[in-house]
Amino acid sequence: MTNAEINEIFGITESYQLPEKLMSILMDFKQRTELFEKFNGLDLSHDFFTRYFQEQHSNRENMMQDFTPQELCDVVVNTLGEYSDCLDVCAGTGGLTISAWKKNPDANYYVEELSGRAYPILLFNLAIRNIKGYVINKDVLTKEFKRGFKLSKGDKYSEIEEIWSEPDMPKFQAVIMNPPYSLKHEWDTAITDCRFEGYGYPPTKASDYAFVMDGLYNMGKGGTLTAVLPHGVLFRGGSEKTIREKLVINGILNEVIGLPEKLFLNTAIPVCLMILRHESKDLLFIDASKDFEKDAKLNRLRQEDIGKIKETSRKRQSIEKYAEVVSFWKVKENDYNLNIPRYVDSYEEPEPIDIDATLDRIKELDCNINKTMDELAKMLNELKGGTEDTVFIKKSVDVMRRKRSEKKADGQATIFDFIGRS
Question: Which residues contact 97 (CB under 8 A, 6 or more apart)?
Fold first, then answer.
């Protein structure tokens, strides 16, 4: 569905009008039912608003928003075990939640999103799929509640009820997130925040671990947390290293998966998945960064790439140049640096250079240069008139030819002369 078609359905001319118009429709039972019917027959297995919202509304400068492509959503959900409830931190327009709903349509989904432009579409995406749970407009870092909605199963679409305070949260069996990357946030370390107890506050310059710790705090025993994060979380020092070290020592970090670059529309940086589970005994590192197909400016994960990650994760086996099961002691020896190349050697020897073929090609190019200069000199000699440009070009060609001859006369033999004598 094109952006123009979406705008036409909602009766708007510019995309910035969508959030406000959509909220007014969703709060009216008759209007939202009529709206949902207009989408009847569309494939609801993915978020068809992802590209629309990202192209029109994403803000790399302030919100650092990059919405999760469908293939990556599938990878994240494949890392989860069984669950009857799921928390999506920084849910965007709901791509990850929709993939989780495909796996378990009967689970309860609790989704959080700060952006006032994104959460109306998030609410739409859950309600049209008859998903039950909560959509909460909040700031995860400050824990500030702004607006909330309870979704209940209906005959065909979810019933929507606005709520005025944040509901009690259970300890979730599944936690998923693709938070803003390396978002700056000033922490008041004098205030006790139970989410960081035993780990310490993340740094001001990057809040990646703040989102992880928020999700971990809300994850129950036997649950799984999977976060899409920049690679810096694997090796940066300071307080991030302290948190990383404690996650390993406490047996919570279970798996690290490196993914290809250019998976996102608005940033080319490669990302990784950090998978947390309680009572982990060792770590599995997977380097899936080389498995993809190119699609214009983007890289796409194919089904075979997703399947390979899923199978390797399930079996937890070492595979040469792809995956390695690593003990706690080896991570400790590396000073809790989790950079994937330290554990998975995926280096491929370059193909040997054919010296003879390369020298033949160089000799051929040199001959072509000489031939071209001779032809250019001949054409210039045939030119009539004496304009300044013509005189300048003739002199330039003469200088170039003379310098090449002088180098050979002075013994500054080129590789081409060496080839001729050898």
Answer: 86, 88, 91, 109, 111, 125, 126, 131, 176
SS3 assignment, position 327: strand
Q: Which residues pair with 139 in a beta bridge?
A: 144
Read off the tokens for 91.
């849910």
Distance between CA atoms of 342 and 311, rounded to whole angstroms? 22
What is the reported pTM?
0.82
Render pLDDT for 188-204 as a digit per residue (tens, 0 to 9).
Answer: 999 999 999 999 999 99
Is there a domain that residue 52 lies in?
yes
225 and 134 together in one domain = yes
The β-bridge relationship of strands 144-152 and 323-327 is unpaired
Q: Provide the number of structural domains found in the chain.
A: 2
Alpha-carbon distances of 206 from 185, 186, 193, 232, 308, rounded to whole Å = 7, 10, 17, 10, 32
pLDDT digits (tens, 9 = 90+) for 132-189: 999 999 999 999 999 999 999 999 999 999 999 999 999 999 999 999 999 999 999 9
Domain membership of residue 73 (yes or no) is yes
